[in-house]
Design a protein that fits this description.
Layout (H helix, E strand, L loop, with lengths): L2 H22 L3 H12 L2 H17 L10 H19 L35 H5 L20 H7 L4 H12 L4 H8 L3 H18 L13 H15 L3 H6 L1 E8 L6 E3 L1 H11 L5 E9 L2 E9 L6 E12 L2 E8 L3 H4 L9 E2 L10
Parallel strand pairs: 1-6
Antiparallel strand pairs: 1-2, 3-4, 4-5, 5-6, 5-7
């Protein structure tokens, strides 16, 4: 090959690469969200997005045969997720309440290494999705289908049913479109969807407490009180913010607590182990959230401790999920949060 031919080949490849990136990048975050819903893990979703874009680039010269570029990316991503789930020892992730009854015993601090837990999804990724509004045929609104409880519930579905439900009821694709993407007949897709809906109805009944970003002064005041309760180690104040039937979970620890008094007893015990906390506001799964930093002695740097997701209902906390160490601190990077804070300087997200 001559120098001129090599130069032309390089120019052609560069043009193709720019064209691919122009087509693919607008869909990166919604593909990440789709992989997250399939896998229940923000870390695994990131790996699958990278894999999806790599496979798409390698087959870019063939995509036009498939029609919609977006649908082609979803096909690659869904198949990559199904393959990843097929080689995983356990195809589902959990939240502690799915593993056993609530307890009043204090935890021993030992995680359950053989169990994978659902991870939170940063709202900053959702903000970068241009328009994830589903079609009118979708059974779940975008805000509902990203909540932690929903993502945890669909993990109980077999992977193929999970994919069908997400494509049909979350994204609003037709049975024909879904069959073309996953393979199989329209009859088989509809059958899988009905089985998935039946299972989900028992895991995620209608009428669950609504949750979301703060709306109005009342909820904003509740979140400020929550932050102050942690930073002042005020068990009475924290308890006052809970609904009577509130639940508290702390993956990867299997223990969880139901009811205001059981949660109060836990924090009365647990907070004796710390010299203080500093909380930073964030958001995850369309819900208000906090990143908590702790220290063992006064004057020491604040170290990443846990990520808190709050489910709000009727102006109180109906559910509190605290992603505890070691899993919680490992999630801070996905939320663009530092692993530690200086002893006396508050965190400034803009710095």
């Amino acid at each position: 090959m001559t120098k001129f031919e090599r130069s032309n080949e390089q120019d052609t490849a560069a043009v193709a690469r720019r064209r691919f990136e122009a087509l693919a990048e607008p869909f990166r975050q919604e593909i990440r969200l789709h992989c997250y819903r399939m896998l229940g893990s923000v870390h695994e979703a990131e790996d699958l997005v990278q894999q999806t874009f790599l496979y798409a680039w390698r087959g870019f010269d063939r995509y036009e045969e498939c029609g919609s570029f977006r649908a082609w990316l979803y096909q690659i991503a869904t198949n990559a997720c199904l393959n990843a789930l097929a080689i995983r020892r356990n195809a589902r992730r959990y939240l502690p309440e799915a593993l056993g009854p609530a307890t009043t015993d204090m935890p021993d601090g030992k995680a359950t290494p053989d169990i994978l837990y659902v991870e939170p999804f940063p709202d900053s990724y959702l903000d970068e999705i241009a328009d994830e509004a589903p079609t009118p045929e979708a059974a779940y609104a975008s805000s509902e289908a990203v909540r932690l409880a929903f993502v945890a519930a669909i993990q109980d579905l077999p992977p193929s049913q999970r994919a069908v439900l997400l494509l049909r009821d979350v994204l609003g694709w037709s049975a024909i479109e879904t069959a073309n993407l996953l393979g199989g007949s329209v009859v088989s897709i509809n059958s899988a969807l009905q089985r998935a809906r039946k299972t989900l109805a028992t895991r995620y009944p209608k009428g669950r407490p609504a949750s979301g970003a703060p709306q109005g002064a009342r909820e904003e005041a509740l979140l400020r009180r929550y932050l102050n309760a942690w930073e002042q180690l005020d068990v009475d104040e924290l308890t006052a913010l809970l609904k009577e039937e509130a639940t508290y979970t702390m993956p990867p620890l299997p223990q969880w607590y139901a009811g205001r008094e059981a949660i109060r007893a836990f924090f009365s015990w647990a907070w004796q182990l710390y010299k203080g906390f500093k909380l930073v506001r964030t958001a995850a799964n369309g819900q208000p959230a906090f990143a908590a930093y702790a220290r063992a002695e006064a004057g020491a740097p604040w170290q990443a401790h846990s990520l808190h997701l709050l489910t709000l209902a009727d102006g109180l906390i109906a559910g509190l999920t605290v992603f505890y160490k070691p899993d919680g601190p490992q999630l801070f990077a996905a939320f663009r949060l530092p692993a530690s804070l200086p002893p006396d300087r508050p965190f400034d997200r803009e710095s």
